[in-house]
Structure to design on (243 residues):
């Protein structure tokens, strides 16, 4: 469990991105000049045109390795606010970076109403949230949790599926063997909305929404990454409206 107190609250029901922009510009520069020059290779970025140029959105990504959110933040042309496990804020030095960026910490294993309020504030400010529906790292997809679908329904936000691959083994150095193997790849898929009228869908509907979104993400991944969603013949799109 994280020792980070829940008094660490960068915002609650109101989010203003302006105070964070200068710090994020600096951290983007660090990612570009240090992170993806000396510590990680990014071989391919595809589908950037699928990210809305303005307005709220949710980027939902598969979470393989530690570096995945950094790849997404680096590749996304707009600032995004990650939802991140609170334990990461305790890491020596590295834990300072998400605080400087401004993230939504989530205490895993409990219903974190504060994280929900913070995420709603970001989306209601017409900004982007970065969410891994699985809630943890896994080499292949596990069943998605319901939070992403709830936030999307509550705010009527478009969802952009984000497929990541080849991110294991980073960060590393150019002298390491991993550096000379295939680098990370990221693909931003076609955006969609959930076609539901309820702003607070029941659990059964949220699970259907989540599974349908995860099947879309699974179809963007190589077969060995699909895990729980490996059988694409089971995919439905009853709650999905493509944009």
């Amino acid at each position: 469990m994280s020792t980070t107190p829940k008094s660490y609250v960068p915002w609650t029901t109101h989010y203003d991105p302006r105070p964070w922009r200068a710090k994020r510009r600096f951290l983007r520069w660090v990612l570009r000049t240090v992170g993806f020059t000396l510590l990680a290779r990014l071989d391919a970025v595809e589908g950037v045109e699928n990210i809305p140029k303005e307005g709220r959105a949710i980027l939902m990504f598969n979470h393989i390795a530690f570096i995945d959110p950094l790849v997404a933040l680096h590749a996304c042309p707009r600032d995004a606010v990650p939802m991140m496990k609170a334990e990461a804020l305790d890491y020596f030095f590295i834990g300072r970076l998400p605080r400087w960026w401004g993230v939504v910490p989530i205490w895993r294993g409990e219903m974190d109403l504060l994280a929900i309020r913070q995420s709603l504030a970001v989306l209601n400010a017409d900004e982007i949230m970065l969410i891994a529906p699985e809630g943890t790292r896994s080499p292949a997809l596990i069943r998605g949790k319901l939070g992403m679908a709830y936030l999307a329904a509550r705010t009527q936000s478009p969802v952009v599926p984000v497929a990541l691959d080849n991110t294991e083994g980073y960060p590393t150095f150019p002298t390491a063997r991993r550096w000379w193997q295939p680098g990370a790849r990221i693909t931003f898929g076609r955006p969609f909305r959930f076609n539901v009228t309820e702003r607070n869908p029941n659990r059964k509907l949220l699970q259907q929404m989540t599974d349908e979104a995860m099947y879309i993400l699974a179809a963007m991944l190589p077969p060995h990454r699909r895990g729980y969603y490996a059988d694409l013949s089971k995919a439905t799109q009853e709650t999905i409206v493509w944009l």
The first strand starts at residue 42 and ends at 46. The beta strands are 42-46, 57-61, 80-85, 104-106, 128-131, 159-165, 184-188, 192-194, 240-242. The chain is about 30% helix and 15% strand.
